[in-house]
Amino acid sequence: MSKEQQQVLGEVLGPLADNERLKRESNFLRGTIEQDLQDRITGGFTADNFQLIRFHGMYQQDDRDIRNERTKQKLEPLHNVMLRARMPGGVITPTQWLAIDKFATDHSLYGSIRLTTRQTFQFHGVLKPNIKLMHQTLNSIGIDSIATAGDVNRNVLCTTNPVESELHQEAYEWAKKISEHLLPKTKAYAEIWLDGEKVETTEDDEPILGKHYLPRKFKTTVVIPPQNDVDVHANDLNFVAIADQGKLVGFNVLVGGGLAMTHGDTSTYPRRADDFGYIPLDKTLDVAAAVVTTQRDWGNRSNRKNAKTKYTLDRVGSDVFKAEVEKRAGVVFESSRPYEFTERGDRIGWVEGIDGKHHLALFIENGRLLDFPGKPLKTGVAEIAKIHKGDFRMTANQNLIVAGVSTANKNKIEKIAVAHGLMDTTVSEQRKNSMACVAFPTCPLAMAEAERFLPQFVTDIEGLLDKHGLAKEDNIIMRVTGCPNGCGRAMLAEIGLVGKAPGRYNLHLGGNRGGTRVPKMYKENITEKQILEDIDLLVGRWAKERNHNEGFGDFTIRAGIIEEVVVSKRDFYA
Amino acid sequence: MSLNKKESSSNTELSQGNTPELPSIASPLNDQQLNQLQQTVTSLSSQQLAWVSGYFWGLSQNQPAAAAAPISQAAAAVAAKPAGKLSIIFASQTGNAKGVAEALEQEAKAQGIAVALYDASDYKGKNLAKETHVIVVASTNGEGEAPDNAIELHEFLQSKKAPKLPNLNYAVIGLGDSSYEFFCQTGKDFDSYLSKLGATSFIDRIDCDVDYEAQAKEWRGKALESVKEALSFGSEAEIVQLPVGQAAVGHSQYNKQNPYTATLLASQKITGRDSGKDVRHIEIDLDGSGITYQPGDALGVWYENSSELANAILAKVGLSGVESIDVEGESLSIHSALVAKYEITSANPQLVSKFAELSGSKKLQKLVDDKDKLREYASNTQIIDVLGEKKTKLTAEELVGLLRGLTPRLYSIASAQSEVEEEVHLTVGVVEYAQGDETRFGGASSFLSHRLEEGAEVKVFIENNNNFKLPQDDNTPVIMIGPGTGIAPFRSFLQERDNRDAQGKNWLFFGDRTFTQDFLYQVEWQKYLKSGLLTQLDVAFSRDQQDKIYVQHRILENGEKLWQWIQDGAYLYICGDATRMAKDVHEALIEIAQQYGKLSRQQAEELMNNLRKEKRYQRDVY
Description:
heterodimer; A: alpha+beta; five-stranded antiparallel β-sheet; 18 helices; globular; B: alpha/beta; six-stranded antiparallel β-sheet; 23 helices; 21 strands; disordered N terminus
């Protein structure tokens, strides 16, 4: 008997990948996770469950620093899970914060809270016996981790702009609505983790995602120009907020961005999203569902490396995809309303919103909240949470905004922030514009260091900027990611490093400040020393030869140092 | 015709061999008896002789004071059967008592004493009534209990069924460890039971401590002298074949006195980096030694003490280390003697008492008056810290006068030769704790884990343990309970069952402090679960949750199933801590028998005792 073949629009894509089997057989994401929780012999999950827990927001990981050591000790790897919470728009209340702070301290191996590029927090190093407790703790404060990983629509991002508070509030509400609308409807999460009542799920219960869920992960944002903090081109589906007189009226819809690729596989590449056009607000959920269901039906379920929306667009044609979305959503896209992205970073420090409230953006290096020697960051945030009356906003740049502070509380909060090393005037612009994914020791995919590599690397870059006489505000958007899967969004940076092997990276150049251009590989598999030598030369040229206000990425292209990637499929490997 | 020993012993001349018509062995008969016998014998055909031998044998068994001769008696020897012999019975757990009994047997043979050696489990208590001379070599198990192989005999002698023993002359040598409360208790018990039954002790019992060698040897000499006087005629020794296990083990030229110099192959820590314990997996190369062992056996390891510790001890008592001292006829520096000849880590009550006297320490003298506190103190304090209680200058002789001789440490073997061939593996818990600002180490465990480098030499020997053996039948299910380093023999058992392709089910209980750091041999059990060799594995990690969970809790949780396994003939094995774990597990098993077998407490206890007697409940606890 031949394996089931997938056909899309008459084209045979091939036999279904094994992940399709496991989704189909999972009984709507239940698998045998409950049995695994009873298994006291391993700290890990077995077979399909290893993948299925991702749909519940967790990844099985282990401490890779001690993997070999434990092999010798005849102990299995130190299996644990990382949990990524579902926090549309990254808004979290002080009460919630204090609860997650306590859980991280009491029940995780690393004792940290990690803010991530998905605008949410992650717990790292939770052992199996504490997993249910973790979900129940989150549930008690109104947080879940449904569908923050796996082949589903993940945590929906939303620009954190606290200045235009009203517009942000509207956009944020949409982010929540979209998240809820696209969420799996199976009760598996409640059953397994919250001891919920066991209810049978049928295909009718999953009208959008279906029994097989999506071919691959799917990411959605709501963005408020001119900020592009969410990095739209890293996402499958983006709603660009269009305002009229400060009031949200509709969205431009961008489809098919994505940064993941596989080393050595030129059928994979980072790609910008295509602009489908404008829709009025009331069509938002219909369009969201139509894009998701089209990708659900047309996405490649045979080859997971070509399964994301960006490849579906390139395979069937962006126009064909768009027409299908129009048909399914019952809309016709109007031409895009004009907008511009000018920046991606967070405005670190205090800003005052139009509502008169104060907002303090804290730069959190690598998003890692932990009590470091002399810098008790995690305690600092908890101390703020104890007196803060507004909320917190986690940003897609891994920073934290203390939002909605009254004038009365401003000084108190600043005092705490300063005392705990959360406000540090010595942090350079370069550091604020640098970012890394988690990588070692917890991420199983990491090929090279990222989070632990970044701080010193930034210091070295600062030295080079200084050496070539650049001003304090001059900086390069620089990102390091431990593997080519894209969490660190290096494929939208001016300098992007992609981990290849311990101590070795591919060096990409040519992204721009606004995040609308994919950088191209400049050198492959080089060491830190070689990278610094190259950057030394390039920064030297930039300092001398740049035009007024010309960013480093734009300069590298104008100077012919690197070729521009216009159409990824054509240009990225050319 | 009588084979009464009293007559025979008075006819010493006949033992000189001047009755040529009879077989050359000495006869206990007087002239008249001998003549009568000779006349009869000469008229018989060989067939008739054989019949008569059986007849006489049967007759002899009904004589109350006759010797309980072993069954392997040759037919032709009937007429000359020695009237008196020495029976040696050993009650042994780890093999020390058996070793002493075997030495006794050899020495008796060398002196021409008729001798039979019995494993206590094979000796029928009522036969004592037919004996004239018996020596019991008894070790003591755990908290004063009889070793598993002697439970039945021990019980029988205190029961109403025990016969009166007016004709029995006996002696008891006890082996034990004075750091335990019930030191040499089993030896004391046998002494008192036999005495109450009317038997006469022909030499005072001796209670030997862990460094028993010299003392035991001296006692054996005296005892045999006394036996020889009483049974003063020559005879070919009768040797009783030892039961189970022994046959399978090839006798090696290496033993405690003559250990094999092996090399250390590996010493690997098998607890995680955040564990509170350091447990080592030790691999030792036996290549070319010809040494063989069976699952359940132990490895004796001779070790050397740390030179630093020896120096520290010498400094405590004001010695430089170069002072010379005689040890077993050899002149050594006191430093060398401490490193190689004496136990200088674990204290014992005697040492504390002696030092209390020498030092005049008020604290120690107070302890000496309270036996329980003394024992507790001695078992929790290393020698160097005892000496530190009061600064006292000692001579080299005074110092060694406090110390016991160095004895090898025994470790349950953690490998099966069917798997590792000419290697032997151990699971060694490294004893290490802080004493003030200093760290104290266990003698042997720190030798194996810290001082011995891979490739270095280590002197070892095998101690057979016939009381901890897999069932003969590979189809028999086994239940193994081995928390902590008690897991060691079960690694050996499982390797053996795996290589024998044994079809019986295997159920393992393991426990320790934490899942992530202390799950000894975790990946090996996972593989065995996957392959199906391990039918079930239940684990208890005491510190992973608020309430302490131990193996006995997992046993109770699985009570119904475990009871079913016992009904299906499963063998039960426990290895590890004797003071708490083994008792708690035993209690759990009794509870299960009561609950699922609907037994009374007493019936449940009887059941467990019967299982022990049937070797279906075996323990290797320490």
